Amino acid sequence: MKDVKGKLVLVTGASSGIGSATAKLLVANGAEVILQARGIDKLNSVATDIKAEGGLTYVYATDLTDIAATESTAKKIIDEVGLPDIIINCAGAGEWLSIFQTSNEEFHQMMDAPHFATIHTIKAFLNHFVKRDSGHIININSAASYFIYPGAIGYLSSRWTLRVFTEALQEELRTTNIHVSMLVAGKVDSPYFTNNPISAERIPKISTMLMKTLTVEQVAKTILKIINTRKKIVIIPWEMSLSVILNKYFPGIFRTLNRMTGYGGITDEIAEIKRKT
Ligand SMILES: NC(=O)c1ccc[n+]([C@@H]2O[C@H](COP(=O)([O-])OP(=O)(O)OC[C@H]3O[C@@H](n4cnc5c(N)ncnc54)[C@H](OP(=O)(O)O)[C@@H]3O)[C@@H](O)[C@H]2O)c1
Fold first, then answer.
1. CATH code for position 42
2. What is the span of the domain harbouring residue 238?
3. C-alpha 191 – ligand 1 centre gap (Å)
4. CA gap 198, 206 in Å, rounded
5. Is 259 helix (H, G, I), strand (E, B) or coil?
């Protein structure tokens, strides 16, 4: 078992939800944590909570969709704090909308974070990890990365792409001492759903009926376990893990159930387009 005590951990998306809960748990277990997101006030508020508990933390406000800013901040982090032992990629956003409701610009934004924000962050540190021949990268992903349902096309695209990127990275770094893990979570009670109420409404009911909503603390504990076990893919809760396996063999059944219990507005949207065009 590895120990996070004394380890330097970079957590992106650390100002809210899964990222902030993870940062706090890591510090409680003896890690030093670098907090990264765009909003400085929320980052400082998380840092204040951590320092009040006697923890060591550093704040870097960065828009991780900006390649130059991500790279220059990474250099600053290395110079001022050191090279992280572990990177946890939690920065992400994007509302659940249909093809008709999503502009081209919004499609790009949804790919920007988490998908490209994760890639920019990893690339800013990876060569240093390779030179040191150690490091652990943990990408946080959604169960949406395994399923298809209506009304969330940009969100699904970015999570499926992030999953493929993560699995491909695991393959490419197979011969190194750099570990790559992916945590896939079902619904988590975080500010994301307060900020994106349409997304909450569109979760297929079959999913909310069969599995409980996770807390950010439960997700943080699982991330701590992944640091210890270095497992490549962890899916929570266990009912979601089972659904992912069944979906692999019976994709048609899951697609039908998700369609029947998910967003039903597509037919109206298509009718509206026909009427207007
Ligand atoms: N909530 C769920 O049910 C759930 C389930 C599974 C997976 N996830 C995934 O986990 C990730 C985090 O979700 P959450 O629920 O913790 O959401 P959240 O509470 O909304 O937190 C998102 C974090 O990402 C940061 N962020 C967004 N865009 C950024 C950017 N361009 N650059 C840097 N930081 C950025 C936000 O801070 P700023 O806005 O200040 O930058 C915030 O700290 C998302 O990718 C989500 O898909 C969520």
1. 3.40.50.720
2. 8-276
3. 9
4. 17
5. helix
**188 Cβ inside 6 Å of ligand 1:** yes
For residue 212, give the amino acid letter: K
Query: 206, 257 in Cβ contact below 8 A?
Result: yes
How far is the centre of ligand 1, averaged over its atoms, from the C-alpha of 20 (Å)?
Answer: 10
Q: Ligand 1 in contact with 144 (CB < 6 A)? A: no
In a domain, 3, yes or no: no
Is 45 part of any domain?
yes
* Residue 55, phi-psi category: left (phi > 0), alpha (psi -120 to 50), beta (remainder): beta
Closest ligand 1 atom to 63 CA: 32
User: What is the reported pTM?
Assistant: 0.97
How many DSSP H helices and E strands does the chain contain?
A: 13, 9
Q: How far is the CA of 132 from the centre of ligand 1 (A)?
A: 29
Q: Which atom of ligand 1 is nearest to the CA of 188?
A: 3
**Total count of domains within the chain:** 1
pLDDT tens, residue by residue, 167-226: 999 999 999 999 999 999 999 999 999 999 999 999 999 999 999 999 999 999 999 999
User: Ligand 1: which of 33, 141, 142, 193 to mutate, judged by most atoms within 8 Å of the beta carbon?
Assistant: 142
Please give the helix or strand (H or E) that residue 249 lies within, else none.
helix 238-249
- Residue pair 260/252 in contact by the 8 Å Cβ criterion: no
